[in-house]
Write a structure and sequence with these properties.
Structural class: alpha/beta
CATH topology of the largest domain: Rossmann fold
Number of helices: 10
Number of strands: 10
Helix content: 25-40%
CATH architecture of the largest domain: 3-Layer(aba) Sandwich
Order of helices and strands: EEEHEEHEHHHHEHEHEEHH
Strand content: 15-25%
Strand order of the largest sheet: 6-7-8-3-9-10
Shape: globular
Bound molecules: adenosine-5'-triphosphate, magnesium ion
CATH class of the largest domain: Alpha Beta
Radius of gyration: 19 Å
Oligomer: single chain
Largest sheet: 6 strands, mixed
């Protein structure tokens, strides 16, 4: 695939490309002409001060917001106007900045629900094709059990998620996204509100997903230590605009980036 102009990145295979995308809400320009590419199997981080437009960009990729202009492609296919369920069916999974689990449901059921777009038999067809649907259920259950084991949630599978500690709920959210067997995983502050040890665990899980499954990861994260540790490339947004793109080392030394962060600190 050819690289969209302006969307600088490394030398890998482009999996997801965002080209000159913009979105306004009333008078607020949340995202202005942003371009970036996520390479297959790599970790791309999106960083920037509060209100920079990070979540809005993720919402456009996952189909929750429709861009005012610009284009988003997955493996060259234009997905700009796809609804969230279609984007998910193509293998783009996400977690939310604020935990969005079904609190009354168990860990296991939340993960099974995360798999529903992979299921061919709904309730009615399950009734009609009982044998096939049952076999499918067993396969899905096996996959979900693998994820439970990977995330070390074995002892919690029957617990309602609402009763779990915050860090564990974040881990279940990751599990629910993984249940989709995604090609691309969008993570909106998966370590937000965590202590250092929980952050390190989460960073390890993200790297394992990337390395073992070759999943492409787009990560929004505020903790610079984590970002610098696990990212292949970093895109920096400030007030809706892309102000830098490069390796963690490059963006860290970029005067524009330093200025944006110092400015944000002064304003806080
Ligand atoms: N649905 C919406 N309606 C109105 N304004 C919105 C909406 N979504 C985002 N915005 C505005 O767009 C701007 C960018 O917000 P966004 O949530 O994308 O930033 P962010 O970089 O994720 O910030 P944070 O680090 O605080 O999560 C903000 O000014 C925000 O108020
Ligand atoms: Mg956000």
């Amino acid at each position: 695939m050819t690289r969209p102009s302006g969307a600088v990145a490394g030398e890998g295979v482009v999996q997801l490309a965002v080209e000159n995308v913009g979105k306004s809400f009333g008078g607020v320009r949340a995202v202005e002409d942003v371009s970036c590419v996520a390479e297959k199997g790599k970790v791309l981080s999106i960083i920037g001060p509060n209100g920079a437009g990070k979540t809005s960009l993720l919402n456009m990729i996952s189909g929750f917001y429709k861009p005012d202009h610009g284009r988003i492609t997955l493996d060259g296919r234009d997905i700009t106007s796809y609804a969230p369920n279609r984007v998910a069916a193509l293998g783009i999974a996400r977690t939310f900045q604020n935990i969005a689990l079904f609190r009354g449901m168990t860990v296991l059921d939340n993960l099974m629900l995360g798999r529903h777009v992979r299921m061919r038999y709904g309730v009615l067809s399950a009734f009609l094709y009982w044998g096939r649907a049952q076999r499918e259920e067993v396969e899905h259950r096996e996959r979900v059990e693998d994820i439970i084991e990977f995330l070390k949630l074995q002892d919690l599978r029957k617990q309602p998620t609402g009763a779990l500690a915050y860090g564990l709920q974040k881990r279940v959210e990751l599990g629910r996204a993984l249940a989709l067997d995604p090609q691309v995983l969008l993570l909106d502050e998966p370590m937000g509100g965590m202590n250092q040890e929980e952050k390190e665990d989460m960073a390890r899980y993200i790297l394992d997903v990337s390395e073992e499954r070759g999943t492409t990861i787009i990560l929004i994260e505020h903790d610079m230590g984590v970002v610098m540790d696990i990212s292949d490339r970093v895109v920096v947004l400030d007030r809706g605009r892309r102000i830098a793109e490069g390796t963690p080392d490059e963006v860290q030394r970029d005067p524009e980036v330093i200025k944006a962060y110092l400015g944000a600190q002064k304003a806080a």
